[in-house]
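A quick aside before the break. I want you to see a complete sequence-to-structure record at least once, exactly as it would be stored in a machine-readable document. Don't worry about memorizing anything.
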Amino acid sequence: MTTGIRLIVGLGNPGAAYDRTRHNAGADLVQALARGFGVTLRHEARFHGSVARVPPELRLLVPGTFMNRSGQAVLALLQFYQIAPENMLVVHDDLDLPPGTVRLKLGGGHGGHNGLRDIMSALGERRDFARLRIGIGHPGPGADVVSYVLRKPPPAERELIDSTFARAADVIPDLMGGDFDRAMRRLHTIN
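That is the input. The structure line, written in tokens, reads:
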């Protein structure tokens, strides 16, 4: 990446029923980032979600759409502020990583994640954006994955998921500066 991240999107589902569920880990992290930056996410209808500006040019977005319609919010904001997809970081839950693990990735497929699938579809199948994957663990073979991701984790697991937020926040300056390799080295060597 030669230019830095200008948009960070936290995926989740709207409404109190989904608050702090495993599937909302991305939205939870972006809300924590907003608090850390001292900014407030405010709903903006034109962007189908809640948005904050972190001076000088970083935007935070938590789509107000359901997960499988995340692309609507992302596309609206990218177009309005003329941000290229490669300058976007999408934060999402990941079943393939254990709780307490966070990984950075550039590009790739959607891995069955409906939020990523919809964003790629909205972007004309572009995949060249960064992802921050927050581990939520897997319920095991034959288990109902949908019920698992839509439930709140037990307290010990919640603590592990929340522990990734500070580590992720530490590499945001690297990502904003366009140093994806340094951010990845720092993030991946601490857990």
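Two observations worth writing down. The longest strand covers residues 88-94. The helical segments are 25-37, 70-81, 114-122, 145-149, 155-176, 180-188. We'll return to this after the break.
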